[in-house]
Design goal:
By secondary structure, the chain is mainly alpha-helical. The protein has helices at residues 17-32, 48-57, 72-83, 87-92, 98-110.
C-alpha cells in the first residue's frame, strides 16, 4: 500500500471537502513531483488523477474507496470540466508541465 498523508504545503481558505481534495492534490504534486503515464512512480511523483486519489483516500492507487469518499466525484468532475475532457490524457500530454497541473488543480479548488 502507498498510504501517504495529505500535505498542507500551501495554505488556503476554508474549502468544502471536494475543493480541499483538489487543493491537496496540487500540494502533493508540488511536493513530490509530476508523473506522466502512471498514477504514482517509485520516486513518489504522481499524475493529476493519482494525486486526487491520494488526497481523497491517502493512496494514489486507490480505485475503489475513492468513490465512497464524500466529494470525490464532485472534485473529479470539476477538474474534468476545467481541463476540457479526460484528466489522464490532459495530464499525459507531452507539453504538460508540473506547474500547469498544479495551477489547474488550485484553480479548480477555488472556482
Amino acid at each position: 500500500m502507498h498510504k501517504i498523508e495529505n500535505p498542507k504545503t500551501v495554505e488556503c481558505p476554508t474549502l468544502s471537502p471536494d475543493r480541499q481534495m483538489l487543493w491537496d492534490a496540487a500540494n502533493l504534486i508540488e511536493e513530490r513531483g509530476h508523473a506522466k503515464g502512471a498514477l504514482v512512480r517509485v520516486d513518489g511523483s504522481m499524475c493529476a488523477l493519482g494525486a486526487l486519489n491520494c488526497a481523497a483516500t491517502g493512496d494514489p492507487l486507490d480505485h475503489q474507496q475513492r468513490h465512497d469518499v464524500s466529494g470525490f466525484m464532485v472534485a473529479f468532475s470539476s477538474l474534468t470540466k476545467r481541463v476540457g475532457g479526460d484528466i489522464v490524457e490532459w495530464n499525459n500530454a507531452p507539453e504538460r508541465t508540473k506547474e500547469e497541473v498544479v495551477s489547474e488543480l488550485r484553480s479548480a479548488a477555488l472556482s
